[in-house]
Amino acid sequence: MGKKEQNVSEEKQRVEGVLNLLTKQQPLTVKQEKFCNNAGIERFLKAKGDNVKKAAKQLRNCLAWRDSLAIDHLIADEFSAELAEGAAYVSGHDDDVYSVAGVYTGGGNSNHAKRG
Question: PANTHER family from the xrefs (predicted)?
C-alpha cells in the first residue's frame, strides 16, 4: 500500500471513528446524518488536529446547537435588520433554493460594502 492510499485509509478510519462515537450515545436523525457526511466530518477532524474524540465532541455540540436553534428553518427574512445594516448578507442559494446568508464578525462594524 502506498503512502497516499495509507493516508486515505487512515482518514476513513478517523471519519468512521467520529461516526461511531456520535451514534454510540444515540442514533442520528435523518437531518443530522445529512449534515454528517464525510466532507463535514473531515472538516471537524481537521479543526481538531485529527483527534477523533475532540472532533466527535465538537460535532455533537454543533448538532445540538443546530437543533436548539432550528437552524434548518431559519430564513433570510428573519434577518432583515441585519441585512439592511450590512451586518449580514445573502451569498446565494442552496440546492433546495433557500437563501444562504453570511454574517460579518468583528465587533459590529457595519461599514462593509453592501451586497445586492
Answer: SEC14P-LIKE PHOSPHATIDYLINOSITOL TRANSFER FAMILY PROTEIN
